[in-house]
Amino acid sequence: MNTQTSAVSANMSAGLMSIVKKNAVPILFAILSILSVVVAKMNPLFLVNEIITRLARNAFLVLALLIPVSAGLGLNFAIVVGAMAGQVAVIAITHWKIEGLLGFFLAMLGSVPLAVIMGYLVGQVMNRAKGREMITSMVLGFFANGIYQLVFLFLVGTVIPMKNRSMMLPDGVGIRNTVDLFGISRALDNLWRINVAGIRIPLASLLLVVLLCIALHYFMQTRLGQQMRAVGQDINIAAVAGINVDRTRVIAMILSTVLAAWGQLIFLQNISTLNTYNSHEQVGTFAIAALLVGGATARRATIWQALLGVLLFHTLFVVSPSAGQAIIGIPQIGEYFRVFVAYGVIGVALALHAWQARE
Amino acid sequence: MKERLRNLIAQLGVPRVIIIGFVLALFVIAYSTKLPIGPLFSASLVRVGMNGVLVLAMVPTISAGVGLNFGLPVGVLCGLVGALISMQMDFKGFMGFIMAILFSLPLAVLAGWGYAALLNKVKGQEMMVGTYLGFSSVAGMCIFWLLAPFDNPELVWAIGGQGLRYTLTLDNHFGKVLNRLFQVSFGGLEIPLGLLGFFGLMCLLVHLFFSTKMGLAVKAAGANPRFAQASGIDPDRTRTVGVVLSTVLGAIGIVVYAQSYGFIQLYMAPLMMAFPAVAAILIGGANLQRATIGHVILGTFLFQTLLTTALPVTSRVIQGDISEVARLIISNGMILYALTRGDGRETA
User: Do B128 and A332 touch (CB under 8 A)?
Assistant: First the structure.
């Protein structure tokens, strides 16, 4: 009897251990988040509101990372390129003063062709850098940022004819550092927003995220989705099985880039201002860090990991300055700590990924 | 002639030809808009000496088979700590410069050793892991700068007395000591012989290292780890030597950079430090497997000349400071070009 229970409990603890081991990263971050919340003594209503807002704002961008992971391209740091495509569309509709929901949806529509072209180019580059996709996608993001700045700081107003006092720098060349997005400000969030006991829930934005989750789920079961997974598992076997590997990878990048453009639009309508030259810079880092915090790896990422990751990462993001203030008395510590966490979690996840790949 | 030209282009690679053409074009524009060439060229030379050692830090990792050292900030941070200790202890002038390097050396060896141990576990993904190790070290060190036990009033915030300032001026310490050392004027040209001499000395030391037994082993194991192993060389050990050397050069490099700049920048400033250095050596003709001192010198010269001349020249033609944007496009474009060349190396 006694031995039996101990055997059962040993079995249970072994099972528990394996669960803990498999989900070490999200568990660690859950503990860290809860501790920071307790230490920071934050107003719970404020916290919940903030987290829901951030979930609606960021989840779409994080979900945009899933397809390239399945297709074996790793973490797509080049979603920055998609975010830029979204911003180009936003600048266009703000310039033409198309406002409200119509403006928002037109921006979504308008960003598609650009994102498709960009995604195609990104995919071509990735195919020339097999085995080094992640570093290449990261450098590609920086490179694209240079081109983006060239266009919006120097070509707009000189080569590209545009006249708009409120959006452009005083001398008529280049877009201002910050552009107010009055027109589409909260266009989606306010479309359908409910208030439950002081908690504001932007249902329309969340619904869009849910729709994307469902679409992704079904997409992975289509023929194309299956092919992507096959390519992700083993390029050589997939090629032998008659799958056009390069084409599949390019399609994965195109889809990711388009989704990132839309994700950035959702992000921007919530933030309501466009930091022309900074809004997109951290998109890749923060989205990837969130995905990894949810327990994903560079080879396997699920919808649930993406959502859990956004929740945990952004909780930590909201509370860490207050926690830093409460523990050491310097709020900047918390700010640097969250940057450290974002970079650190990516570093650790990549190291683990490379480590496991060798074994 | 056409044949020879085509051969030359094939040998140099298209991006290098474009960059050389670009530099030449800038000088032609400078000449035709009556911009004084002398000062432009002098400024370029200063920038070469200022950045050269950081670029040189790429050679040991590439030779050791680790690839481009995107984790250069690890070494840079060690150099910054060394410089701060030297300033805290109030060493002045040239002594301050030497002490900054001496203080940073043990830190760099230790940090480089740890960095190498990590890289040996992630073969095939060294560049990516290195990048993020560098990024997270920079962010982690931000917390250190806030809490570090420095109390020299020149270093810490005036209010509160704790936490290092964002930018520290080196005027009272070792600012420009190398720049001013043996500076000679020669027909309208200012040549910072001391600064360039120090860069040359570092190049020579690295060159000499690679002709020692250890250096040759590092190179051999970098070129072909399996073959090296068969002849009794431990590739993990030679990789460690390469990474430590690179980290040490990174530390020395930032001290040289800081003295030339006249300021030390802390917090997020070192974040992207690796990228211009990586770009420079690639512009010089290096690839992911092979890098020489010649690549370092040529690359640093071309890249820095391009950056220094781009601003004054282009501002005559267009408004605004295009040099920052040019730097982004050229450096990342160059890295991208190197990454997308097939290299026949197995990758994980």
Answer: no
